[in-house]
Automatic annotation (TrEMBL):
This is Signal recognition particle receptor subunit beta. The keyword Iron does not apply. It is a single-pass membrane protein. The chain crosses the membrane at residues 32-52. Keywords: Endoplasmic reticulum, GTP-binding, Membrane, Nucleotide-binding, Receptor, Transmembrane, Transmembrane helix. NCBIfam families: small_GTP. The lineage of its organism: Eukaryota, Viridiplantae, Streptophyta, Embryophyta, Tracheophyta. GO terms for cellular component: signal recognition particle receptor complex.
Length: 261
């Protein structure tokens, strides 16, 4: 575009601006105010819709220590079988699907986005990629090997319950005691009480750490009282399951309470 063409374009644009100003000046004030009001109302409505869509997540995060049976549960939810869940996961299993138990139901069902985050300590940072979008978190505990893993499980659960992405949005957490079909499995009540005791100890030790070291955490529980899950900012539910046998009804109920069909 040469210099002469640029000048012609400037003149044309100035004419458009002048015509637009004249058009606006010719509009009666009342009509102008109404038009502006309609535009503003539309923009506000679009903003509300956009914000609402952000809050209606369909993501359920499965997490817990390595070997707790998360991958079994993932495949039971998706396929109704644990045939692929025998190997410890080193990468997140992720998929959006209708729950296997709902495949025969009539009508339109909302798919659930399920993410199985590996429990290995080196891979846990991957959890932070999914928590901001989570509609619910399922923390899986091995009911058989619970006692030797009580401390590390409590530490991991403490981290989740104090994360800003969980606390601010009040993301519900399901404490799922897996492998309850085994004779040597501990009861859900026993597991709950032991985790509460360990988290109470952690809470005491963490409060002694400087604010700079825990700037991204929220305080758990009520000062001066023994810790209980009922004191959490978000809802914490205790349930049981067996990924091997496919008894996951309480898990499915939690999912559908937080991801509506």
């Amino acid at each position: 575009m040469d210099k002469e063409q640029v000048e012609q374009l400037k003149i044309q644009m100035q004419q458009w601006v002048n015509e637009a100003e004249k058009f606006i000046n010719d509009i009666p004030p009342v009509q102008l105010y109404v038009a502006v009001g309609v535009v503003l109302s539309t923009l506000i409505l679009l903003l509300i819709i956009r914000l609402f869509k952000r809050t209606t997540s369909n993501t359920i995060v499965l997490t817990g220590l390595s070997g707790s049976g998360k991958t079994f549960l993932f495949y039971q939810l998706r396929d109704g079988s644990a045939h692929q869940g025998t190997v410890t996961s080193m990468e997140p299993n992720e998929g959006s699907f209708i729950l296997h138990s709902e495949e025969d139901k009539k009508g339109k069902l909302k798919p659930v986005h399920v993410v199985d985050v590996p429990g290995h300590s080196r891979l846990r940072p991957k959890l932070d990629e999914f928590l901001p979008q989570a509609a619910g978190v399922v923390f899986v505990v091995d009911s058989v090997e619970f006692l030797p893993n009580c401390r590390p499980a409590s530490e991991y659960l403490y981290e989740i319950l104090t994360k800003a992405s969980v606390v601010k949005k009040k993301v519900p957490v399901l404490l799922l005691c897996n492998k309850v079909d085994k004779v040597t499995a501990h009861t859900t009540e026993f597991i709950r009480k032991q985790l509460e005791k360990e988290i109470d100890k952690l809470r005491t030790s963490r409060t002694a750490v400087s604010d700079a070291d825990i700037s991204n955490e929220y305080t758990l529980g009520v000062p001066g009282e023994p810790f209980a899950f009922s004191q959490c900012h978000n809802r914490v539910i205790v349930a049981e399951a067996s990924g091997l046998t496919g008894e996951i009804s309480q898990l499915e109920k939690f999912i559908r309470e937080n991801v509506k069909p």
